[in-house]
Here is the input.
Amino acid sequence: MESNAVNKKRKNHFNLKRLQAESVIFHTINYLLLIGLCVIMLYPMLNTLALSFNDGLDAVRGGIRLWPRRFTLNNYETLFSVPTVFPAFRISIYRTIVTVITNLVFTSMLAYAISRPEYKLGKPIALIVVITMYFNAGLIPHFILRQSLGLLNTFAVLWFPSMISAFNLIIIRTYMKSLPESLVESAKLDGSGDFGIYVRIIMPLCKPVLATIALFVAVGAWNEWFDAFIYNSARPDLEVLQGVLRQFLAAAMAHAAGGGGGHAAAAAAAAGAPVLATPLTLRAAITIFTALPILLVFPFLQRYIVHGMTLGGVKE
Amino acid sequence: MLMSIPMLLYVILFAYVPLGGWVMAFQNFRPRFGVGPIRNLIEAEWVGLAHFRTLLDTSGHTGARFIRALTNTVGQSLLTLVVGTISAIVLSLMLHEVRQTGIKRFIQNILYLPHFLSWMIVTVLVSMALALPVSGGIINDVLLALRIIREPIQFLAEPRYFWGIVAGANLWRNLGWNTIIYMASMTAIDPNLYEAASIDGANRYRKMWHITLATIRPTIILLIIMNIGWLLASGFEIQFFLGSGPSIARAENIDIFVLRFGIEQHNFGLATAAGVFRTGVSILLLLAANLVAKLMKQETLF
Here is the structure.
């Protein structure tokens, strides 16, 4: 009996040691893999950053990784002297600001209306809006609608059709429904109207969710280029910054395909690109310039990421 | 409350009215100079199902091209979905094993970053990464250094790599992002379960399989069903800007097909028919996936 117990104890001890060794190996490998993954995620942007500060002719020799070999600010000087860059930057800023403001105002206003239990149309409206998340009429009908409304080749087409987002509407409504009902009731007893309650009571309480949505809408608006490309093709002055990046890329692709002929040149011409060779380093500079606002807001964004996503996980 | 009525009308205008444009799929609709689209829509010649027949008739040039676009769309999407889902689950398990909260959050934030870069930027980065070594293409460099290949590969010039490039770009951009939902359901797991399993003698991998994966299984199935509804949309920028030259055979998907035939060649009827076909098949796929999940007594979307 006694020797049995000792044996068992020894065996357990041995197992424990083996388990600890296994655990150390596992965690080391796990960390190494995760660090490797982080390198893969960061490398392309860091490499582009290094290239954007490197001399253009020198970069052709290759071998630039994370640090410029021949430091220069020339690429950025050249970039800012390209006449389309600053107007496009301005249009991008304007469309982002207008989209964020209109989205917040209209989506939250509608969310308040459909969050009120006494509002009979609340449920039907919610359903009508939610259905729009699951289908899309397609490019051509949307094009014709904007044409009929006279929105083609205007600044308005960049923000007016996207003032209410179904997804955000549901998130805001869910948040509003979680607020204590007594707040609204006591305000009603004090004689406040719906609009007063919305502005003075609901809006301040919704600050966290509105901040989250504002950031996500801003990123989406900044990154969008397709609407300007399709609907504003006759107005190069309304091009957005992502569109300028597109022109640089298309030109580079055409150049890589051998300059003159081939599909790539046709694609570049179709994409509205001036068919000329853009040095790699200049392309790196415009990429960094376009990504800069995103990189600047990312520290604020990441605080809300999980919050926003889990809110979005609410099934309707 | 009254304010909600104009907003409702606005939603109907921009989301439901364009559905009326689907009649173009059954018409010989072409934009006419100086004629309003609504009058044009009323006066256009009706052709019945002719556009759909053209699209699905593989003996014709247009049909062959549409079927190719359909194949490419599904191929690119499926590869993206399979690779993306498996990697996201594996990565979530790996992150779940990291016990130091600070380090974990730091790693997660780095992994989330690419998701916020626009597809335009991702396309530029992909084109740079896939370039030849002389142009600083890192992927060729790494493969050469590891002696996996002897000669640099012109990835963008060879069609057979293109689906992989699309899946790889999606993986790079969305891997971290895709773990969020899995991680959220993993944090809800009761730690007592792990302890009880340890006492019963389960090792690390058995616990992963029987507790962690078992808990997130409904989430995995739900996400797969939702993504099956998106199988006929495989993205645009990578395919449009990098899929020129010979690669077009594996790059051109339905989105690009609609753009080329609709906006560029003004064949609005045919392009709309392609769009209607896509929406119809998407809804059928979504319902079918949901039905299969229901029959297997799994979590369903509706």
About this structure: Chain B touches chain A through 82 residues (CB under 8 Å). Chain B has a mean pLDDT of 91.
